[in-house]
């Protein structure tokens, strides 16, 4: 899981924050990772400010969205985190889908240092560019997005692009085996651990 990847990447303590309904199941099946819970309904976390404060207490970095699924409550949770926590927040998977439904101007007004890790389809949802447009002008689309919003962007693909307002890195190592369901979650865990 994400917590184990973070630990293997060098963080000393990892906390998995889950819906209250699955807390016991998760708690009994993770060894090194600590577990916190947020009140939930139908297996989805609901916005509860005190529970979020308790779950995030002392965190130096947070990954959001892996394993979430979809819920309108997640928009409230993500907005609260971005506006109230001055830590790096890595947004991946359903966190990106949640963000795509929100007013992205929150990225320019938040306290968090935001790192987005989309694949092409997720980036298309965030930008309203088609996948064809992104593939045709990848660097231009990435640079325009980063210029408009105050984020670090890691666009996953055959050549992974990491870009912020100051630097651009192109990573063309790896192989097709990395295009496997779950490998993006591992990447998010590694980034979190680092």
Summarize the helices and strands and which ones pair or pack.
Layout (H helix, E strand, L loop, with lengths): L1 H7 L6 E5 L3 H5 L6 E5 L1 E2 L2 E2 L3 H8 L5 E3 L7 H13 L3 E4 L2 H7 L5 H4 L3 E4 L3 H8 L3 H6 L1 H11 L2 E5 L4 E4 L4 E4 L11 H11 L1
Parallel strand pairs: 1-2, 5-6, 6-7, 7-8
Antiparallel strand pairs: 3-4, 8-9, 9-10
Helix pairs in contact: 1-10, 5-7
In terms of DSSP E residues, the strand content is 15-25%
What is the N-to-C order of secondary-structure elements (H for helix, E for strand)? HEHEEEHEHEHHEHHHEEEH
Number of strands: 10
**Alpha carbon gap, first and last residue:** 16 Å
Radius of gyration of CA atoms, rounded to a whole number: 16 Å
The major beta sheet can be summarized as: 6 strands, mixed
Descriptive report:
- There is one protein chain.
- With 194 residues, this protein is an alpha/beta fold.
- Helix content is 41%, strand content 20%.
- The strands form three sheets. It has a six-stranded mixed sheet with strand order 5-6-7-8-9-10, with helices on both faces. The protein has a two-stranded parallel sheet with strand order 1-2.
- A hairpin with a 2-residue loop joins β3 (40-41) and β4 (44-45).
- α1 (2-8) crosses α10 (183-193) and α5 packs parallel to α7.
- The protein is globular and about 45 Å long.
- It starts with a helix and ends with a helix.
- The relative contact order is 0.15.
